[in-house]
Each structure stands twice: as structure tokens, then as C-alpha cells.
Amino acid sequence: MRRLALLLVLLLCLPGLSTVSGVPVAEAEDAGNGSVHGTDPYWPKDGNGGTDAQHYDVRVRYDFASGRLKGRTAITMTATATADLRSFSLDLLLPATKVKVDGRRARFRKAGKHELRVTPKQPIAAGAQFRVVVKYAGRPGAYGYAGERNWLASRNEVVAMNQPHMAPWWFPSNDHPSDKATFDVRVTVPKGKKVVGNGVRMGRKVKGRLATTHWRMTDPMATYLAFFAAGRFVVDRGTTAAGIPFYNAVSREIAPRERRQVRRILARTAAITDWLQARLGTYPFATTGGLVTGLDVGFALENQSRPTYGRWIYPGVVVHELAHQWFGDSVAVQRWRDIWLNEGFATYLEAEYIAAHGGESVEAYLERMWAASCGTPTSAFWRLNLADPGRDHIFDAPVYDRGAMVLAALRNRIGAAHLDTVLRRWVADHHDGNATVEQFEALAATVSGESLQGFFDAWLRSGRAPAATPANGLTTACA
């Protein structure tokens, strides 16, 4: 993710709930009633105990004039509770109208505005797979959660994109990156609109004045990365030089002259994807691409396989969001505190891309960033704990910029060849999965054969600028 305020700064600079065996305490105490809480202390209501989502079949119809969304989502789940599951919860903001579990009507109620509590006719056997179908309807734009009002829409265009939360505005889910699932998404809108989503476009059916478009994501995906956009779009399709299919869409709400420029920048997706594949290993999904919305958005987002951008798109942000396909999407965070693994890594790949295309070297990038920040060694830039920044700071500038500096310094400390191995091993070992900062530290130490605890403590957790020493990957004293 890139926020516009952060982008402007960079352009000017140029280049907790405790657990028992992984189960929330509330659930461990009463395994038969799946907890309304997940395991993430940053947002304890995200995700739910007792269940594991396997597949979402999301079908929604959106009315542009009223802003009303009507949906039916079927979720294939596994009961992970240690006892038969008498009830469970889903994250959903819109009002539910009917719920069935394995084809039978189930009782349900809202437990607060964010939780849908479901009680099936019969308890679900521990370890069993089951299917829950939820029907719901409402105006997503009328709802907020965790201080966020995330629905982006006008009378001509809509795009469901945001982080760390988006799913509860348009489908019920276990809304946490640690519970990834595959997706089928069908969106019905007036036939004059096009619909863009994650993965592969499976088809489009027109019925009267409406059309339903079906998108499929066969790789496990975090719920916040699931998206759809509907509007008047110019679409470009093809394959990259390496043979990866791409699907790019640009809003016709953007004026023609500006739209042509935006299309040219978005068209660089193909070559950038190929470069990242050569750098990191096989592209993790079946298709690539992007969407530029005409709505006024102040951030770009790495929606799995197809990032979304504002009309201010530029090449560096395309590199950033496509790097997230490896760091953030295929390898998702286990907890939101691990966000450095997403944002710092994607920012570092921006620096590597510039260096590989005739610009500033990675070494010069680190020296420049170090010189600009080391003079205030206890400033907010350095005080933030990158291994646990806090819920209100996961998108602060140090997570991006200092996060990228950590990798550049690690490159100096263990060598470029070892860092290359670390990054490739990381995305291969955790493909389609989740990982933590501690796991990355352990991998770097294993590959390099060095003890790196002091290095990572100095850069991530010390609360001040690291000493300018070779052990910290720094060769230039602070001016």
C-alpha cells in the first residue's frame, strides 16, 4: 500500500489477546462457541475463533443510484474448535437477512455492528467441513468500523479497496490475513458498466439491463485483498514478454488526455512484473495487471493479482504494488504487527528497480536516506518499533522508508548474494502462506551463517538510530 501523503514526501526527496496453542483464550475456555475475537491484538474483533475459511463464493448486486448492495455469500469452512461447534461468528457490517448452514436455516444475530453470530440447527462436529450461506443487503457507504469509512463510490463508479479492512463492507468473512481462502466473485451491475476483480475473468452474462461478471482467484487470498470495481473502463489485455497474462483497466471518468498518460504508465505493469519475477522467482499468480480508478483516492493498494491506483499513478508506485504480490499477498503477514514485511520490502524493491535501470545505486540510496535521518537519532523516525509499530502507526513513513533501509543495510552486512538468496527463499518457503518478522530474522541468520540478533535489534527495535558500524551495515558516519 502507498498513501498519497507519503508519496508526495518521497517525490520531494526523489529517487493483544494471549493464546493457548494458537487458540484465543476465549475459545480455549469454551471451544463449542467460536470466539467473536481473532488472535490479533491490534484489531481483536478481526477474524473469529473456531473456524477456518477455505473458499468464498461471493455474489453481489450493486445499484449506483441508491448506493445499495445486495449480496449472497457462501463460505466453505472447517470447524477448528476442539469441541463440537455450537455457534460461530463472521465479520460483516451490512444487515443479514437469512443464514443457512449446510442447507438448513440457522439462527443469527448481530453482536455489535461488526459481528454476525450464527447458531446452526445442530452443532458442527469438531474438524468437520461445513458450508454457510449468508444473504444480506444495505448501503455500505453508511457504515464505519475501527474509525474507517471505506466505501469508495460515485454515481458512475465504485471500487472496493482498502487496508487493513475492506471485506465487511461487502461480504461476510473471517477478516484477518492469517485466514486466507480461494475466491469466486460475481458482480451484477448495469450492462453498460464493466467489472474488474482479482485473478482470472471467467465470463460475463447479460440478462436484460444487467450483466454479471465472474472473477476467480485460485490462490489463497487475504480477505482485505479481495476487491471489485465497476464503472466505465478502457481495458487492455495481453501477455508479458515472459508469458504472464495481464488485464489492465483505466476509468473513463479520467479526462482523455490524462487517461492516455495513465494508460501508458499502467502498461509498464507487464515489464515490471517480468523484472520482479527474474529478481524474486516465479510470479505467484495466474495473471497480473492493474486498475486506475477515476475516484478520488489517496492511496494505491496491492489487491491480489491486480493492484488499484489513483490517477496520480507513476512508475515507482507500480513497482511497489507489484512487489507486494510476493511480499504481502503470496506471503501475507501472520499478524498486523508484521507489516514491515510488506511495506519495507516493497519500498526496497523500488530502490533495487531504480538501480537496475540506470538510476541511483542501492548503496547510494542507503547513504542518502541515512544522511537525511541520522542527525536526529531519537526522532519519531527512529523511535518507532518496526517489529511492533502499534495499530495507529502501521502505515507511518518509517515502516516504508526505514523498513527499506533495513534491507539495504542487511545487503551491506551479509552481501548482495546472500540477500538475494534470503529473498528468494522467503517467497518460496512461504508461498500462499503467512509469516512473521521473527521468521525472517531466523532465515537471514541461517542463510548468512551469522548471528544477526544485534543487527535486527538495532534497526528494528532499539528506538534510536543504529550506530554507524559495519556490523549494522553502515559505512558512512553520521554528518
TrEMBL record:
Its cofactor is Zn(2+). It is an enzyme of class 3 (hydrolase). Keywords: Hydrolase, Metal-binding, Metalloprotease, Protease, Signal, Zinc. Residues 29-50 are annotated as: Disordered. It comes from Nocardioides humi. Residues 315-459 form the Peptidase M1 membrane alanine aminopeptidase domain. It comes from the Bacteria. The keyword Hydrolase applies. It catalyses: Release of an N-terminal amino acid, Xaa-|-Yaa- from a peptide, amide or arylamide. Xaa is preferably Ala, but may be most amino acids including Pro (slow action). When a terminal hydrophobic residue is followed by a prolyl residue, the two may be released as an intact Xaa-Pro dipeptide. Its EC number is 3.4.11.2. Belongs to the peptidase M1 family. Residues 54-225 form the Aminopeptidase N-like N-terminal domain. This is Aminopeptidase N. It holds the Pfam family Peptidase_M1_N. Residues 1-22 form the signal peptide.
